[in-house]
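F.,

This is the one I mentioned.
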């Protein structure tokens, strides 16, 4: 407040200060009676409400008396404590409206009984209105700041729980149920793990993905690792996977892998491994999203990585000496040949070349590997070897 207040206002403020505790108790009763939340909820005790009311009035009346500038620390303390207690902000703001009206009414009553001039009453009223704006804003800012801290702390806790699932640090059934509850996930699947490559350490590959999935009513929980942003996603109905892929496709800027579906959170660690493998696959078309192939062949190829790599090398080793582009042509031709059921004509149509070209390339694979595409056992070995090559580069 600028300048020294008029003597009548100083006397009025001093009189109100002397009764601050009395008014605080009376105001606490009014708040408890008139505001629905405080009437029906005991998260904040009447004594705590009274202390808050008395503190706020004390600071306002001291400022009116000219003893200090307007100190809003009491309002900030109220905002913080109410956020911690979980009191809704509208209820706290309603209490402030009731409180400042109560304060103004008591001040006007005291002024009239003391013969304070009308001009002084109007001046005091103006100062109380200014204080209402300042205190309410300070309380609201402190409340929202505390809420932000709580949200961040909660997200850190959720993120830590996700990491515990991803790296199999939670195995007890009861703990798994409790973890699912804290993550807002059902205790049983189907789930998938999503793994998105990150542009740099500490950077998100899928910014705000949890909220974007929430809009579609798709529940998920996420963790940022040094090389991946990883999420556990609940598939509440069969077609949700397609919705999930649509959302990921819209937001992804780098490769994203999706694990096969699983039902037990205890399998999250293995699902992460498969999702990570899927990020290294060549996506189809222009999409950056790859769903791990849940075929028996794919699972066999990744079941024991070191052993599988040795098997793949023993079968395909001879073609590894080819120039990279030539090797890729043979690999892609074989994959297309498998996809079309072993038809040279359909393979040619799929990869845009002549059927004889397809046959020539397949014959080259036979020459280089020593395997025959007319012998089922050799075909099985080649299929496994090429799957290992695709999934375990």
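My design for it:
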């Amino acid at each position: 407040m600028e300048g020294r207040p008029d003597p009548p206002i100083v006397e009025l403020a001093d009189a109100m200060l002397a009764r601050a505790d009395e008014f605080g108790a009376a105001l606490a009763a009014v708040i408890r009676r008139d505001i629905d939340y405080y009437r029906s909820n005991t998260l904040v005790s009447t004594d705590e409400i009274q202390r808050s009311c008395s503190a706020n009035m004390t600071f306002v009346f001291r400022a009116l008396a000219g003893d200090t500038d307007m100190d809003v620390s009491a309002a900030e303390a109220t905002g913080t404590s109410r956020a911690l207690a979980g009191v809704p902000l509208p209820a706290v703001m309603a209490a402030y409206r009731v409180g400042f009206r109560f304060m103004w009414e008591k001040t006007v009553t005291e002024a009239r009984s003391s013969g304070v001039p009308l001009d002084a009453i109007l001046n005091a009223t103006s100062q109380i209105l200014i204080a209402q704006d300042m205190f309410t804003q300070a309380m609201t800012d402190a409340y929202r700041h505390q809420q932000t801290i709580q949200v961040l702390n909660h997200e850190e806790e959720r993120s830590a729980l996700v990491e515990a699932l991803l790296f199999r640090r939670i195995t007890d059934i009861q703990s798994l149920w409790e973890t699912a509850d804290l993550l807002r996930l059902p205790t049983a699947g189907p789930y998938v793990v999503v793994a998105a490559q990150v542009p740099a350490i500490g950077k998100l590959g899928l910014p705000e993905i949890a909220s974007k999935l929430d809009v579609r009513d798709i529940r998920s929980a996420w963790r940022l690792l040094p090389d991946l942003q990883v999420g556990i996603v609940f598939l509440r109905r069969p077609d949700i996977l397609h919705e999930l892929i649509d959302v990921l496709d819209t937001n992804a800027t780098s490769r994203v892998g999706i694990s096969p579906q699983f039902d037990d959170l205890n399998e999250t660690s293995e699902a992460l491994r498969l999702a990570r493998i899927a990020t290294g696959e060549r996506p189809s078309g222009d999409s950056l999203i790859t769903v791990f192939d849940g075929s028996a062949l794919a699972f066999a190829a990744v079941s024991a990585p070191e052993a599988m790599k040795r098997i793949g090398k023993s079968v395909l080793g001879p073609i590894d000496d080819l120039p990279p582009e030539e090797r890729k042509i043979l690999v892609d031709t074989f994959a297309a040949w498998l996809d079309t059921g072993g038809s040279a004509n359909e393979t040619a149509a799929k990869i845009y070349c002549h059927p004889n070209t397809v046959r020539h390339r397949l014959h080259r694979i036979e020459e280089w590997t020593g395997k025959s595409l007319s012998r089922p056992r050799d075909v099985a070995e080649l299929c496994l070897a090429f799957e290992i090559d695709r999934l375990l580069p």
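The radius of gyration is 35 Å.

Talk soon.
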